[in-house]
Amino acid sequence: MAEPPLKEAERARWMRAQGLARGLSTTQIAAEIAEQCGPLFSTSRIKAHRLAHGVALSDVVAQMRALYEMDGKPPPKIGETLLSAYESGYKRPGPEYLHYLCLVYRVEPGDLGYQGPCVCGRGHEQRFGAGTQLSAIRDESETLIGAVLDRGWINQQFEGGPHRAEASASIDLGEEDVVLRRTLLQLLAGAGVALDGQFLGAVDQLRRKMDDTLVNATVSPTMLDQWEETILGYGRSYQSTPSLRMLCDVLLDFSEVRRLCDQRQPIELQERLCRIAAQLSGISGLIMINLGDHRLARSFFRTARTAADETGDRSLRAWVTVREALLPLYYGDPREALHLARKAQDLAGRTPNVAAAMAPAVEARALGQLALRGRSDAAPTARRALVRGRAVFDQLSKNDTTDLVFGFTDRQMSFYEGDTYTNLGDHQKGEEVLRYALTLYSPTEVIDRTLVKLDRAACSMYAGEPDQAAARAREAIMDLEPEHRSDILMHRARQLAAAVQQQHGDLPELRELREALAGPSVQSPLGPGESTVSSGSPADRA
Question: Does the pLDDT value for residue 535 go beyond 80?
């Protein structure tokens, strides 16, 4: 018998041919490949199965996408890079991707190197036996979404094993991962999820772990490319995805990035990973603002600053600071928002960048709120800030003006201008600019679009039309699905209702608005409209 080849792919191909000639199944061939190639090439069991089938990464990805299509689901985000990371042990597939990988290879999770049963709770191999139709996949996979993971099983999944994929997964899967995965599956199943102490504790524990490990990390440039693509995807879907669902997705990736930070890495890779950590933490802070948890929002922005400081990138630090300014702008003292906005401008410097354009616009909005409270010098200063912000905005590149999270778009700039004019008492100009901004937003960009509608309601109130103000606010809230009724939107609507009542008394339209606000919404841990920071009377805050 000829000597087996010395390279992994050639040796696996030789073993597959030998196995097929002996009448072995692909599962048996995969076991032999893992046994012989594991010690020589660190071949994981999941990779052994692909080699046993004699297919490329692209073939596996195509099969998974075909199965998703059969199940009537949107195409998965998995690609060759992510699948390669699974095979090399740098990442571990989540419950849903693992389920479909098992379907592709017609095996159980243990055969691929992962302990415990699949979340579908049933076997995969027999479903492809003689006479079995592929449509049966659909019936079985429907149980995946409604499944709630058993905590003991999850812990068992990540026990150490002889293969690198298992070893990587067992590094540090904490209780917070269990809570987040369970919450995500419940959301996918359409179940109501409350922001209770266990969930918020898990969120904060995850953030603390990132703080602890930012100073310690070895990853490949390919993996960082994948993470950066994921970050851009979050920026595109931030406005359209329900906040709690988005939080689960972001924090599961945040947890994975934290594990990658556990060991030091070359400086250029370390800076990229810290940038990813800062962006994920910044997005988490924005989502916590939407959900109304001010303490966790501040904590995430603090973590984002720590990570951004590691990169030495002043524009990234400025982006974190100006995004943090939105917290006191909506919930706290506009003087703090003004301070953070001006600090962000100092960090941004004179080079045109996202923060350099956004910070003056936030400054103008904060000054507009101060003008409502009677600060005499606020109005002219706010108008000058808008001029500065627009001047920098006009110099931004196309890439900087297309992303609602990491960029600053024309619709956001118009929204901020309209909000400022409204608070300065120029309700006609405010109405004109806000109406224009509304035409720029896509119907799926729920958060800002609703805030613009509520600002238009405020314009009506200042114009002496309280009935129209209440009707506009009610329409804005009623247009929202329950999962999109986050605290920031409900809080703003309640502020407006309080201001209308204080200035014009109790109106029939106002009672209808209150009824709309009493409908189902994303539950806030603080309770409706409650804030950890005193922010004046309802009229002051409107």
Answer: no
Q: Give pLDDT, residue 271.
A: 85
What's the sign of the alpha-carbon dihedral 523, 526, 532, 537? positive
Please answer whether residues 401 and 407 qualify as being in contact, where contact means their C-beta atoms are separated by less than 8 angstroms: yes
CA gyration radius for the chain? 27
Q: How many CB atoms lie within 10 A of CB 296?
A: 21
CB 353 within 8 A of CB 315: yes
Cα 37 to chain center, whole Å? 38
Q: How many residues does the chain have?
A: 542
Q: What share of the chain is helix, strand, coil (3-state, %, to 5)?
A: 70, 0, 30
For residue range 246-259, list pLDDT tens digits in order: 899 899 889 888 87
Looking up tokens 């812990």, which residue turns up?
Answer: 155
Burial class (CB in 10 A: 0-12, 13-18, 19+), 446: buried
Highest mean predicted confidence (pLDDT) among 7-11, 199-203, 323-327, 424-428:
323-327
User: DSSP string spanning 99-145?
Assistant: HHHHHHHT--GGGGT--S--TT-S-SGGGGSTT--TTHHHHHHHHHH
Cα four-point dihedral sign 481, 487, 488, 493? positive
Q: Which residue type does 406 have?
A: F
Looking at the predicted structure, is the pLDDT value of residue 215 above 60? Answer: no
Tokens of 442: 């896509």
For the chain, count helices (H), then strands (E): 27, 0
In which residue are the tokens 């703090």 written?
336
User: What average pLDDT does the segment 461-488 reach?
Assistant: 90
Residue 159, φ and ψ in degrees, nearest 5: -70, 150
Q: Each residue of 27-40: pLDDT tens digit?
A: 999 999 999 988 88
Is 0.85 surpassed by the pTM of this model? no
The three-state secondary structure class of 453 is: helix
Consecutive H or E run containing 439: helix 427-440
Distance CA 230, CA 181 (A): 18
- Per-residue pLDDT at 122 exceeds 80: no
| Of the candidates 325, 540, 440, the residue with the CA atom closest to the CA atom of residue 448 | 440
Q: Quote the CA–CA distance of 63 and 196 in Å, as a whole number.
A: 39
Structure tokens at 488: 């920031």
- For residues 538 and 499, the answer to whether their CB atoms sit within 8 Å is yes
Q: Cα–Cα distance between 298 and 458 in angstroms, integer? A: 28
Residue that is written with structure tokens 């002219």 in the block? 380
- Assess whether pLDDT exceeds 90 at residue 58: no
Per-residue confidence at 160, pLDDT binned at 50, 70, 90?
Answer: very low
- Which contacts of 117-125 are long-range, i.e. CB under 8 A and separated by 24 or more positions? 117/153, 119/95, 119/144, 119/147, 119/149, 119/185, 120/144, 120/147, 121/147, 125/27
Return the minimum-mean-pLDDT range out of 86-100, 210-224, 263-277.
210-224
Neighbours of 192 (CB within 10 A): 11
Buried b (16+ CB within 10 A) or exposed e, 230-254: bbeebbeebbbbbbbbbbbbbbbbb
Residue 161 CA to residue 164 CA, distance in Å, equals: 8
